[in-house]
Amino acid sequence: MIRSVIKGVGSALPERVMTNADISKIVDTSDEWITERTGIRARHIAGEGETTRSLAVMASRKALDHAGMRPNDIDMVIVATSTPDNTFPATATMVQADLGIQHGAAFDIQAVCTGFVYALTTADSLIKAGQAKAALVIGAETFSRILDWNDRTTCVLFGDGAGAFVLTAEEGEGANSDQGLLASKIRADGRYADKLYVDGGPSTTKTVGYLRMEGREVFKHAVNNIATVMDDVMRRAGTTANDIQWFVPHQANRRILEGVAKKLGVDESRFVMTVAYHGNTSAASIPLAFDVAVKDGRIERGQMVLMEAMGGGFTWGAALARY
Ligand code: UT7
C-alpha cells in the first residue's frame, strides 16, 4: 500500500512582531483581555514586500532542505490559503515557478483554517492514486491584509505565516506501524457560512473584503466538532488517544484547545501550542506548530501525531500521521 510520508517540514514568519501592547495602541483592547480570552501574546505581521507567495516559498525551501530534496524532485504543489496573492492564478503556481519547477501540477485549496487538513487529505489521495510521487503541501496566509483594523473583536486574533510539508510516496504494509498519513477525515456544514466569512469577493463586491466573525458562535461549535472528528479519525485508524504521542491542533484559541484536550482525556502537555506567539495563522498554523515541535525535538521520527482544525464554512477535519 502506498503511504504519503512526511519527509521534511519547514516554516516561515514575517519579520515584524506585533505584541498585544502594540495592538492596544490601535483599538480599545488590553494585553490582559487578549491573553485571558485567547492565550495570544504576539503575532507576526507581513511587511510590504512579504506576501503569501513569498512566505510559502521560504517555508517550502526549508522543508525541502529538511527532507534533503531538491525542488525538481517535487511533482505537485498545493497551497492551502484564503489570502492568495491574486484572485487567480493559484498561489501554488507562483510558488512552483519561484522554486523553478516546470513539471507536475499546482493548485490552491480554500477551506480557511481547515485548509491544511484539506490539503493533506487531497495530497494523500492523489499520491495514493498515482498522480504524484512527491508533493509540497503548504499552508500560507497573510490574514493581516483582510483584517478590519478598527474591529477589536477580530483584529487581535490573527497573524501571518507559512508552513510546509514534503510528502513522498513510499511502500507501506497497510498497518498503523507504517510511516506516513494513516487516516484523515474532512467535514463541512455550509449552513454556518455567515458565522465566519469575508464581506467581499470578486463576483459580489469586486473587492477583497474584510473578515467578519461571530466569535462566540464559532467557539460554541469548535470543541464538539473538533473532538468528534478526532474521534472519527482515531476510530478509522483503529487507535486511541493513548497511542498518540502528539496533538498538533489549529491554533485559534488556547481555551478551545484546553476544552478539546479535556474532552479527549488527554493531558494538555501533549498538545503543541504556538498560539501565544503566532496568533491564529489560519491554514498556516498546523504546519507552523508542527515545524516548531520537530525542530525543538518534541516530535520524533516514529511517533504518531494527530492534527486537527476548524474554520470558516464551517469546515473541520483531522489527520493522523506517523512521523
Ligand atoms: O480559526 C477559526 C476559528 N475561530 C475561532 O476559533 C474563534 C473562536 N472564538 C473565540 O476564540 C472567542 O469567541 C473570542 C476570543 C473571539 C471572543 O471571546 P469571548 O469570550 O467569546 O468574548 P465575547 O465575544 O463574548 O465578548 C466578551 C466581551 C464583549 O463585551 P460585552 O458585550 O460583554 O460588554 C466584547 O465587546 O469582550 C468584548 N471584547 C473585547 N474587549 C477587549 C471583544 N473583543 C475585545 C477586545 N478587547 N479585543
Order of helices and strands: EEHHEHEHEHEHEEEEHEHHHEE
The overall pLDDT, averaged over residues, is 98
Strand order of the largest sheet: 1-7-6-4-5
Proportion of residues in extended strands: 25-35%
The CATH class designation of the largest domain is Alpha Beta
Helix vs. strand class: alpha/beta
Q: Count of helical segments?
A: 10
Alpha-carbon distance between the termini? 17 Å
CATH third-level topology of the largest domain: Peroxisomal Thiolase, Chain A, domain 1
Bound molecules: oxa(dethia)-CoA
CATH architecture of the largest domain: 3-Layer(aba) Sandwich
Helix percent band: 25-40%
In short:
The chain is an alpha/beta fold. It has helices spanning 20-23, 31-38, 52-67, 91-98, 115-128, 152-155, 215-237, 254-264, 275-278, 285-295; strands spanning 2-12, 16-19, 42-45, 76-80, 105-109, 134-142, 160-171, 180-188, 196-198, 211-213, 246-249, 304-311, 315-322. It folds into two domains: 2-171, Peroxisomal Thiolase, Chain A, domain 1 (3-Layer(aba) Sandwich), CATH 3.40.47.10; 180-322, Peroxisomal Thiolase, Chain A, domain 1 (3-Layer(aba) Sandwich).
